[in-house]
Amino acid sequence: MSRFTTKVGTTESAGAVSDIFTRNALAAAGTGALAGIGVGSVLVTAALIPGQVAAGVGISAGLIYAGNRKADGKSFNPFAKKDETKTVPATTETVVSDEVTVTAAA
After folding, report:
1. Suppose 17 and one of 13, 31, 74, 87 were both cysteines; which one would form an S-S bond, judging by CB atoms 3.0 to 4.6 Å apart?
2. Per residue in 71-97, pLDDT tens?
3. SS3 (DSSP) at 74
4. So where are the chain's domains?
């Protein structure tokens, strides 16, 4: 070999490293992994959204039903008997106190 000739970009390998792990191969593998993660996240989101929508509809329907029962003066429990729902009448008693409140002028 001439003294003006040099080897550039070669590595000595003992079999543990292969030449298939080039920059282009690793970039392609990384792009494929990223695309797989992106597609997977879209699939998981698409699978969970119907459940979230169904839960939201159920909760809002329950709240609307409870609000209508409350507005009609009924119990929240539709299976409650009439005698179990107790209403406390408002008292109209006035309490007269003999105590005198004194405030000092500043």
Report:
1. 13
2. 998 888 888 776 655 566 666 666 666
3. coil
4. 23-74
